[in-house]
Amino acid sequence: MPCYAIDGVMPVVHRQAFVHPTAVLIGDVVVDAGAYIGPLAVLRADFGGIRIGYQANVQDNCVIHGFPQSVTVVEDMGHIGHAAILHGCKVGKNAMIGMNSVILDDCEIGENAIVGANSTVTAKTKIPANSLALGSPAKIIRELRAEEIAWKTQGTQQYIELTQRCLHSLQEVKPLNEQDLLLSRKTYLDFQADHQTK
Q1: What is the CATH number of the domain that holds 101?
Q2: Which DSSP state fits 99?
Q3: pLDDT for 128-153, tens place per residue?
Q4: Structural domain contains residue 83
């Protein structure tokens, strides 16, 4: 993975975390155990720090950054959807940031809260725990129901499992061409036929 030190400060990634080889980590980044950092995510801690908690996930094309002396935090089991931008904010435990959302400086997203896709949470906004917020600028819509929090937790569990799958089986390969695919399918069908007749 592209990892860079700046001013002598190097990223730290727990050996039980997964960081995709195309993600970029710069400077004061700490990624805890069980976390997942997706393809093309950029965690750029050349000004402030970045902390990714236990079993949190940061999905494809996300950007995380902050002003000097800030620390951008994704707490344990935080769930950052595809192409979201976090800047100098705090995402609470088991909270979810929807795809393409922007969370600005000094925001606090409470535990179990959900920020809907394509939302902008303006600077210094606090979204309470167990709340649903939507829009640009984001507004608190209502309190989440227990089944919605369970749905979010189940989605995060899939990323926790994906971390393990990636650590154990993800490998760069050359794609099959159509002849390889036909041969592979024929071999598989022959294998099935052999085992059905036994």
Answers
A1: 2.160.10.10
A2: T
A3: 999 999 999 999 999 999 999 999 99
A4: yes
Full DSSP string of 124-189: T-EEPTTEEEEETTEEEEEEPPHHHHHHHHHHHHHHHHHHHHHHHH----PPP-HHHHHHHHHHHH
The CA distance from 11 to 165, in Å, is 23
Predicted pLDDT at 173? 87
Residue 105 main-chain phi, psi, to 5 deg: -60, 140
Residue type, 130: N
| Residue 162 within a domain | no
3-state class of 47 per DSSP?
Answer: strand
- Tokens representing 158? 């899939």
Backbone φ and ψ of 155, nearest 5°: -60, -40
Residues in Cβ contact with 108 at an 8 Å cutoff, skipping those fewer than 6 apart: 89, 90, 92, 125, 126, 127
**Owning domain of residue 140:** 3-148
Number of H helices, E strands in the chain: 2, 20
Gap between the Cα atoms of 134 and 71, Å rounded: 24
Give, in order, the Cα–Cα distances in Å from 21 to each of 28, 30, 37, 70, 73: 18, 16, 9, 26, 22
| Backbone dihedral angles phi then psi of residue 5, each to the nearest 5 degrees | -85, 150
How many domains does one find in the chain? 1
Q: Could you tell me the pTM of the whole model?
A: 0.87
Distance, in Å, from the CA atom of 7 to the CA atom of 143, rounded to the nearest integer, reads: 44
